[in-house]
Design a protein that fits this description.
The complex is a heterodimer. Chain A is an alpha/beta fold. Among the domains of chain A are: about 160 residues, Barwin-like endoglucanases (Beta Barrel); about 150 residues, Dimethylsulfoxide Reductase, domain 2, CATH 3.40.228; about 250 residues, Alpha-Beta Plaits (2-Layer Sandwich), CATH 3.30.70.20. Chain A has 28 helices and 39 strands. In chain A, strand 30 and strand 31 form a beta hairpin. By secondary structure, chain B is mostly helical. Chain B has 10 helices and 1 strand. The chains are: A alpha/beta, B mainly alpha. Chains A and B meet through strand 1 and helix 26 of A and helix 5, strand 1 and helix 7 of B.
């Protein structure tokens, strides 16, 4: 996207003018512009006149009769379907090319909610934010819906004919001019099919391109066991969030940090060095900000101290950190983990492997990941592009991905692509690559078609569909089959035939059904390749990447970092409203990316948040707004990838800048030599950091492990609490004789991944409001994850705090509602009754936690028919003018209650799991009955770390927190 | 100074005040008549259906149990509307050529479902669950009336919130033994209130007040 020169153009009326220009630490302005003064053109008198007319007309609104509705029964009702009762199926999604097991909930055949599969080792019941949002992509009305060629609509049959016609002449020389370009593939069936194609066409080649590739680790992927690690050292690694095995790592890591009692309290100690804050780094006990180029020298220094024969450069700056790391690592042989990030060069990965071996971690906390056997006849992406430039490729089949958008800029991929005689693109969305292809074939979404996938640890899942394809759709299996053998069978038949093998096992059917129902294959043999080639192949080219002499100190030079975006990743989720509106970690930006710069750089270059700079790198230029990021290494500038998409749906259009424009094959992740130039133009960036702000009050309690051991009750600060009977309420009004619901959020293990926010959005039909509305503080998330910085701006301590409704015993919101639309119930929930609410917003004004959200506009008003299918039928879809907030997932409470009533028993502990708690990779959120002293919840509530947010207000919230601890070095 | 108002002004004022009162009451009365009239409540007003299905015939004449067609009433929030196949279990054998049933046969042949008009339609923000009511001894006829005597199906109750609360506040007035739930002809015994109290204890009906919480039905 290009940014207009004038500031006024990008800033809508009523926007918090200049607020974006105020740098960190924080704004002093508590209220949004317009909240305290009348700034609209409309005169006050005119406003009152309109308001009066609105009121009078609104009265007439109630005169409508309820419209007639239809009931449409099945013609043949499937045996397992009970109308009104959801069904759950095991399936799997792909993340970074690896499988993650899911359980998907479907109401009468329409999937509405994705959750993790507890039996799948790389999910354990949790999911990433992306898996949560996958279901929105399924119903996206902007999906490709028909086969097209040159803009004309064709049938799938037309496409098979055209493909066969093109393949026929290629057969003569073994497919020498046939190339298949795909994303990373882990599906055993697809690999076997590729193998078959490559054997049928011995001269054809297969190429993998992934802009977020893991090539730097290609010397050997390893799996770490964080459950055994006392000390963890991460070099620029985001293993808690961006790693294909992140959900498992996060669970194991958090289990080593969970502290409930002072007795026997133990925590691992985590050191992180990284150039830009990541979710992982923010959880470190000791984090240092170092430029990406200095990470390897830093590791070499540590390696040398540990006794590995590497040339150590003197690293004075972080001597304390290095000494502590070395001391702790030496003190815990076989019980530590040293890990490096995928963005760091292979040298670092081999050095880290040596360190782990030296520390005795091999086979203790570190083991080799099962290798994936891939078919031979691969070609590196760089070589493929070179062939395309030469005009040597006649048929290019692109399976998924978007290379035209995300290929390295120096490859001139678009030119090369246009030299291919016949270009076929197969993808769920019509994107930049589709636009330049002769044929675009819509791919089926993973919830629509059969496949299989393999997780990072080697466990294999069958991907089973939950819904018939919404539109015309073809799976990759069918395309590959049509290349090898003309008329393709359905994906289901292809999959079944590969899994059953040449001789059908007698008990295949029962084993197959078992695999489908479990979500992990245990009893069947996956399809194998007839002749496997090398397990991995370099993506770009065989020659090592030139990085220059790193030992040279070039502190003054700016360094560019290309990083996958925490929301849209490489750009594939650009059209997903949930992810676009999800505040980006640390900056809390929504609907934008920004070049992240350090405060020091901002000062020296005179930059403020939202200033547009011109970035120059290897003679390529790019205009981008900047954002000052605490904890950013001084001379590193982070450019999040995945924005600035041009051929994309309505949601992702004109969002952010395209950082791929600067990304070259010799600088995939970071490189020196960036220059920035202030342009004087500004861009309106929308950050939710100071929305619903309650800072300045003691809402976050944190401390140090040793302090806690010395004084376990330090977090509770009882002197601050008023006497609990100091109340105007009648204490006998609510005796809570039955259940008494409550929640605990463990800040100590929360990693700040925001999965709870998205899970809540999916479960509770929460609308997306768009950038303009977020800009005036109207985002609707029921659970926000606040980020807090403390310490210095250069190297702050970062803490995350999820904030849902507190469900106060003495709820300030309930007193002020003039129509009793917010009410208490006999189990202590604060209810919000939508059909009573008249929208005075008094409750929100009186809420000290700022957790109530108001529907200023009809956010659910213009849904396409497909989006309506997404809605959870157990939750009311709210209309304009209605307040809403976290309900503790009351639909799940009532579902569990009814099940228990039908079975004539009490609700069991752990039977009700709200969506936020369900998705949490680290089990930071616990829900339960406070009247059951043996519940997991009450065990946490009795912890000395348990505290009430703003307890001094005597609201007596049902949601409480366990204070954050840091295991600082002594 | 002469009197500004003639004596008759007092009469005028009284008539006016009385008139306004009468008018206001009249308007209120009219509104309440409209509010409770079948025009608004649709009680006892049969709706247009694709087939003039008679519950009276199927229940009273043929003796078919409610659950034969409304299969999920004991398991789910939704009682269930029979699939075309369910209709055809009998109608593939009897009345196979009846012109009245042409649309049922068409539905089975083409796979296109029948589209019935909802008779008992709660607003979308109300979450009613059949299974729990049935399990706690609330009979079908309590809400749906004497369906067994309806040639054409119509609403038997207003389904207003006040009406729901009537039972939620005092379930003993309506609760019946579980084995009578599907008995449309069941009559309340003379000592219903005492028997109701016994059943409430027996079926563990929560009378602590939670049934009248907003969250019982709204979410």
């Amino acid at each position: 996207m290009s940014y207009p020169a004038s500031n006024g153009r990008t800033q809508p009326p009523g926007a918090p003018d200049g607020s974006a220009s105020r740098p960190y630490p924080r704004e002093t302005d508590e209220f949004a512009s317009g909240a305290s003064e009348w700034s609209d053109d409309l005169s006050r008198r005119e406003f009152l006149r309109l308001a009066g007319a609105t009121l009078a007309l609104a009265g007439l609104n109630s005169c409508t009769k309820q419209p007639l509705e239809e009931i449409v029964p099945y013609v043949k009702q499937p045996e397992i379907v009970i109308p009104g009762k959801p069904l759950r199926f095991a399936t799997a999604t792909q993340f970074a090319g690896f499988g993650q097991g899911l359980l998907v909930t479907a109401y009468e055949g329409r999937p509405t909610k994705i959750e993790g599969n507890p039996t799948h080792p790389s999910s354990l019941g949790a999911t990433t934010v992306w898996a949560q949002a996958d279901v929105l992509d399924l119903y996206d009305p902007d999906r490709a819906q028909t086969v097209t060629t040159g803009g004309a609509i064709k049938t799938v049959g037309d496409f098979w004919d055209a493909l066969n016609l093109a393949i026929e002449p290629l057969k003569q020389n073994g497919g020498a001019a046939l190339r298949i370009l795909s994303e990373p593939v882990s599906s055993p069936t697809l690999l076997a099919q590729l193998d078959h194609v490559l054997q049928t066409f011995p001269a054809a080649r297969w190429c993998i391109w992934d802009p977020l590739n893991r090539d730097n680790t290609s010397s050997g992927e390893v799996i770490y066991d964080f459950s055994k690690a006392k000390v963890v050292v991460a070099f620029d690694s985001d293993f808690l969030y961006q790693h294909p095995y992140a959900l498992r790592y996060a669970r194991d890591f958090a289990n080593r940090r969970r502290v409930i009692e002072a007795d026997g309290a133990r925590m691992n100690r985590f050191y992180a060095a990284e150039p830009t804050p990541t979710i992982t780094g923010s959880n470190a006990d000791h984090r240092i900000a170092v430029t990406a180029r200095d990470v390897l020298p830093l590791a070499q220094t540590i390696g040398a101290e540990l006794g590995i024969g590497v040339a150590a450069s003197r690293n004075v700056e972080n001597a304390d950190w290095i000494a502590a790391v070395v001391r702790d690592l030496n003190a815990s042989p076989g019980e530590s983990v040293v890990i490096a990030g995928e963005t760091q060069p292979p040298e670092l990965h081999s050095l880290v492997a040596q360190m782990n071996a030296m520390l005795g971690n091999t086979d203790q906390t570190v083991s080799a990941a099962p290798a994936l056997s891939l078919p031979g006849n691969q070609i590196a992406f760089g070589d493929l592009v070179e062939e395309m430039h030469r005009g040597a490729v006649e048929l290019l089949v692109v399976l998924g991905g978007n290379p035209l958008y995300d290929a390295p800029a120096d490859f001139n991929f678009a030119d090369a692509f246009n030299k291919v005689k016949l270009r076929v693109h197969h993808s769920v969305f019509f994107n930049e690559t589709s636009r330049h292809s002769h044929w675009h074939v819509p791919a089926t979404h993973f919830l629509e078609s059969w496949s299989d996938t393999r997780a990072f640890d080697g466990s294999i899942s069958i991907v089973q569909p939950l819904i018939e394809p919404m539109y015309v759709g073809v799976s990759a299996h069918e395309i590959l089959e049509s290349i090898a053998s003309r008329s393709p069978r359905s994906a289901y038949e292809i999959l079944r035939s590969h899994w059953s093998g040449p001789q059908l096992l007698s008990d295949f059917e029962s084993k197959w059904r078992r695999a489908l129902s479990d979500g992990v294959v245990t009893e069947l043999q996956p399809p194998s390749l007839t002749a496997s080639g090398e397990s991995t192949a370099p993506t770009l080219s065989a020659s090592p990447l030139e990085k220059g002499d790193r030992s040279e100190v070039r502190g003054s030079q700016l360094e560019v970092l290309f990083r996958p975006d925490v929301s849209v990743r490489d750009g594939r989720y650009a059209n997903n409203g949930w992810l676009q509106e999800l505040p980006r970690r640390f900056s809390s930006l929504t609907w934008d990316n920004a070049a992240l710069i350090s405060s020091e750089l901002a000062k020296s270059a005179g930059l403020n948040n939202g200033d547009i700079v011109e970035l120059t790198f290897h003679d390529r230029k790019l205009r981008a707004p900047v954002w000052i990021q605490p904890g950013q290494a001084k001379s590193s500038i982070t450019l999040p990838l995945g924005y600035g998409r041009e051929i994309v749906g309505r949601v992702g259009r004109n969002v952010g800048f395209n950082a791929y424009a600067l990304r070259t094959s010799d600088a995939l992740w970071f490189a020196d030599g960036l220059t920035i130039q202030k342009t004087g133009d500004r861009h309106w960036l929308v950050s939710t950091q100071h929305h619903h702000d309650v800072t300045g009050r003691g809402i976050l309690h944190d401390g140090i492990l040793t302090e806690f051991l010395a004084d376990p009750h330090y977090a509770q600060k009882p002197e601050e609490l008023p006497p609990l009977d100091y109340t105007l309420y009648d204490p006998s009004e609510y005796p809570y004789k039955g259940y008494k619901w409550g929640m605990v959020v463990d800040l100590n293990v929360c990693i700040g991944c925001h999965a709870c926010t998205i899970a809540c959005q999916a479960e509770n039909n929460i609308p997306v409001v768009g950038k303009q509305q977020v800009g005036v503080h109207r985002e609707m998330h029921w659970i926000r994850v606040s980020t807090f910085y403390s310490g210095t701006e250069e190297n702050p301590r970062i803490t995350h705090q999820p904030v849902p409704c507190m469900h106060c015993e003495n709820a300030p919101c309930e007193l002020v509602c003039p129509v009793a639309a917010t009410a208490h119930d006999d189990e202590g929930l604060n209810l919000q009754i939508y059909n009573r609410c008249v929208g005075t917003r008094y409750c929100s004004n009186n809420c000290p936690y700022k957790v109530r959200r108001f529907n200023f506009l009809e956010y659910n008003g213009q849904l396409s028919p497909s989006e309506k299918l997404l809605k959870n039928p157990d939750v009311t879809v709210r209309s304009r003018g209605v307040m809403e907030k976290c309900t503790y997932c009351i639909q799940r409470i009532n579902a569990a209650r009814i099940t228990a009533e039908l079975e004539h028993r009490k609700i069991r502990d752990g039977e009700i799991v709200p969506a936020c708690a369900q998705v949490c990779p680290v089990e930071a959120i616990t829900f339960g009955d406070m009247n059951d002293s043996r519940s997991r919840l009450m065990r946490l509530k009795r912890s000395p770390l348990n505290y009430w947010m703003l307890g001094e207000l005597n609201t007596q919230p049902r949601t409480s927190y366990l204070a954050k601890l840091r295991n600082m070095k002594s | 100074m002469a009197q500004l108002f003639p004596k008759s002004a007092n009469v005028h004022a009284r008539v006016l005040i009385a008139g306004i009162l009468v008018l206001a009451c009249g308007a209120g009365w009219a509104a309440s008549i409209i509010y409770w009239s079948p025009y608004t409540t649709e009680v006892d007003v049969p709706l247009q259906q694709p087939i003039p299905f008679s519950h009276k015939h199927h229940v009273t004449d043929d003796g078919i149990d409610c659950r034969y067609c409304h299969t999920s009433v004991e398991k789910s929030s939704f009682a269930g509307i029979p699939s075309t196949e369910t209709c055809m279990t009998c109608h593939s054998q009897i009345w196979t050529d009846a012109p009245m049933l042409a649309s049922v046969r068409d539905s089975l042949a083409t796979g296109k479902p029948l589209k019935w008009t909802r008779v008992n339609d709660l607003p979308d923000y109300v979450y009613f669950n059949h299974s729990v009511h049935v399990s706690k001894g609330i009979g079908c006829s309590e809400c749906h009336g004497r369906v067994d005597q309806m040639p054409l199906t119509s609403k038997a109750q207003t389904l207003y919130m006040r009406w729901c609360l009537d039972c939620h506040e005092a379930p003993q007035k309506y609760i019946r033994p579980r084995d009578k739930v599907f008995d449309a002809a069941w009559q309340q015994p003379p000592d219903q209130l005492e028997q109701g109290q016994t059943l409430i204890r027996q079926y563990h009906v929560d009378t602590s007040g939670r049934l009248t919480n907003c969250s019982a039905c709204h979410r």
